[in-house]
Design brief:
The protein is of the alpha+beta class. It has four helices and 14 strands. It has a six-stranded mixed sheet. It is globular, with a radius of gyration of 19 Å. The N terminus is likely disordered.
Length: 233
């Protein structure tokens, strides 16, 4: 958490994830955002299960990360479109997470992804205390921060180093290596959930696309048919 002086931090006692608002009553502004989050989660789940055989990790999709206590409480949260935190329990005190309370858990997400809804200025805003990029860079400090723009079919990725975010260069495939996860992040053009778009997707470090459960099932069915075996309905 930040050590800067701010009057909102004087409020006590600190609430937990069951007492803090889980939404700020705004609508999702891009039609594909929900599908995009599911695509990322579905395809990387086998990797995370290998990394965490004990199941100690969580993924947030439009879930608030509370980093300071304010009035109203929602002003003290940032809600990334997608993020992953390792080595934390998927449930908290036996309850489904309603938010990720940074002052209680202390472990920063490894990666935070934002899906641009407008011009991307909000995702790059460094205004102290309110700017999204300032909050991520100065307080929450995920190791990787990605900004995905479906309209431009692009993603830019930053790595936290030397107290600030530095642009992460793409590799020869145009992907961004997220080495702690053993994956790459990039743009894939194709159809998912009846939408043909430039989707944000994962690959392994050899450049193989990480498939969703449905894609894996379809590939297996094709392989069986090639062997003359009709897959079960």
């Amino acid at each position: 958490m930040t050590s800067a002086t701010d009057p909102s931090t004087a409020l006590t006692p600190f609430p937990d994830h069951t007492q803090l608002p889980e939404s700020n009553s705004t609508f999702v502004r891009n039609w594909q955002e929900h599908a995009q989050s599911i695509l990322l989660t579905d395809s990387i789940t086998p990797v995370l299960k290998q990394l965490h055989p004990d199941g100690q990790y969580c993924i947030g999709q439009d879930l608030g990360i509370y980093w300071r206590l304010t009035d109203p409480p929602e002003k003290g949260a940032e809600a990334p479109d997608w993020f992953y935190v390792g080595n934390v329990p998927p449930l908290l005190d036996g309850k489904m997470r309603r938010s990720y309370v940074y002052w209680r858990e202390h472990i920063a997400p490894l990666i935070v992804l934002e899906f641009v809804s407008e011009d991307g200025n909000g995702e790059r805003d460094k205004t102290p205390w309110t700017g999204k990029l300032w909050i991520y860079e100065q307080v929450i400090r995920p190791a990787f921060y990605g900004i995905y723009e479906v309209k431009r079919a692009s993603v830019e990725v930053y790595r936290f180093a030397g107290g600030q975010y530095q642009p992460l260069p793409a590799n020869e495939r145009g992907h961004y290596p997220i080495n702690p996860l053993g994956v790459e992040l990039g743009i894939w053009r194709g159809e998912y959930q009846n939408m043909d778009l430039p989707w944000l997707r994962w690959w392994d470090l050899q450049g193989n696309l990480l498939l969703t459960g449905e894609e894996r099932a379809n590939r297996l069915a094709e392989q069986l048919r090639a062997l003359g075996v009709e897959p079960d309905a």
